[in-house]
Amino acid sequence: MFDHAYGSYMKYAYPADELMPLSCRGRVRDQEPTRGDIDDSLGKFSLTLIDTLDTLVVLNKLDEFEDAVRKTVKDVRLDNDVVVSVFETNIRVLGGLLGGHVMADLLRQRGRRMQWYRDELLHMATELGQRLLPAFNTTSGLPYPKVNLRYGVLNPLSRTGNESSTCTACAGTMILEFAALTFNWMEQLVVIIILYVCPVITESGVGAGIDSYYEYLMKAYILLGDNVFLERFNIHYSAIMKYISQPPLLLNVHMHNPTVSVRSWMDSLQAFFPGLQVLRGDLKPAIETHEMLYQVTKQHKFLPEAFTTEFRVHWGQHLLRPEFAESTYYLYKATGDPYYLRVGQSIVEKLNSYARVPCGFAAVEDVRTGTHEDRMDSFFLAEMFKYLYLLFTEKSQLPIDIDKYIFTTEAHLLPVSLSITQPPHVSPEEDLFTHSCPSTETLFPNNPSFAKTIRDGYKYLTGVGRAFQTFPVRCVHASDPPVRLHANVIAIHHKGVYRVKLVAELSTTPEEEVVPHVVQLISPPFLGRTVLVAGPAKFGMDLTKQEHGVKGSIVKASPFTACGPIDNPEQILGRIALALRGDCMFAVKARWLQAAGAIGIIFMDHREGSNSEETPLFQMVGDGDSNEDITLPLVFLFSREGSVLTAALEEHKNVDVLLLPKKKQLGQARDSLDLYSSQHSIQQSLSILDCLRPFPSAGSVSYVPICNLPAPPAIIIPHHKCGRVI
What we know:
glycoprotein, unfolded protein response, EC 3.2.1.-, glycosidase
């Protein structure tokens, strides 16, 4: 599998940053349509090659490794005039160069390979670190989110923008790669986050935006041996286990109000957390959460990018993320339970069955439909294959002693021998878990059944085989620090105690109803007879509360994906914009088009041939943050319906439409009247409605004309289950 993925990158994409596995070509910054912030990982520095260096050694591909190092030294430049993410560049490129150097130096010392190597990768890592340092020139000491590799941040040529907020993980995932930085920077981080970050985001969890901050506190202690990192981690971990962890769920909480829910969904990046709990020595909750995640993968083939607390799809993407495989590896090493080998086998089989394509492996655009996305992120090679290979391989078969290394968040290998401080001695009275990683020999001697007894309580979690499961009651005292719980938590105040009960009625809970909407073409020659079924949005204007919907002329956005500044705002102003799905989130597109003056948006699916007859309607969701700033009405058309709209626009230039719920579309008469008039226009139908007056008679309602009408062949006016012909 690795040969297929890496070989495809080298054949079709190198020296580009990433492989486009459906197009069989490389993704080069500024040569492909922009994907917004996603592209900030790309710096024109052969990202995938660098990110894969130490994976080549782990998989014992030493000839390929030496060739890759030569290519990196010869071809890669780090002074490109390009704006990149400080966080992504640190973990992928700086970490990749360091991991590559560690492996190259090890092979050189063995005397059989890499004798030509003179620390070139280390020198490149030093150069890159210096190019990232301008991002740290801030009042708080936390880095700016973006930096120009050539011009830094403050230079007028940098083009880094005015964005100054950064996520906790983005600021807190530097210490392993920047171990030479002063310790004071990390020590101040938590206080700085409270002062500078909390006014922006008041929720906390263990997933996207904060995940690797926790990871790096623990691993900084392991790597550097300084107790302050462990103390800081333990403070956070205690709070996580008290409030966020509701086994097997990990629920985002509010920092100030424990009774108000933040989200009704979890993101897939949380899948790393069981692995971190293994490092902490806390096996039981790690097993519980991992089993929940495994059940979700069995239901949806992969972990969706986000899924609800009822384990339904929230965001359907699967980007070939490795976090679930990472936790599977850690749990197998800690328990020796062959069950986790079978979990790994299922990951392998699903990747080969549903993600493998002729030119590599492609991300899954929607786990519900199995459609692919033209991307294979570098972390797939850096992490996924490394963890899977280590899961199935005996230590004696590896070219390195894996126990002498610690994984960065991108799974790059740094030797524990870098530590300049020895961990303190632990007295027998102290908690073993507080100061050590778990030992299979001392904790779970030859007892893989330990994990099974915990897993068995969650084997029917997603509703397969059992209809109902009740989780234990949990009490949160009113004197506890304030937190925020999810909507699926029922909180009852009683004598200073919140009794919190998690109830999952899984197979009996109905899916959230999607109210069908329509795009109705009302200008000549359509006159309301062309009606396209559309999906609604969970944010923006609620069309079900608009009596007459929203009417306007449609115009194509430019760029069509609307993932950046709009090029035709003068045409968009006061009209309903038509935009293509993909490359960025719906909320991002909506903000750009709203800023350009649109009065509504119709999103069109970019998957050719999709249609509302074969694919269930869904509700578009926001980007996880507050979407209250988006006030436009938003609807979604599948490809086949969208092509009707674009064809009409190309032929007639000016096309007026109505956006409204299907039950309110024009031509559906009041009181469930079905005006059967195939030969008459919508205006005539409306005239007929205005000319009919209900006339009550014994037990029924008749309709009598009160003005002269154009004579249709017949008008069928049903009432309940009966029909009368006027």
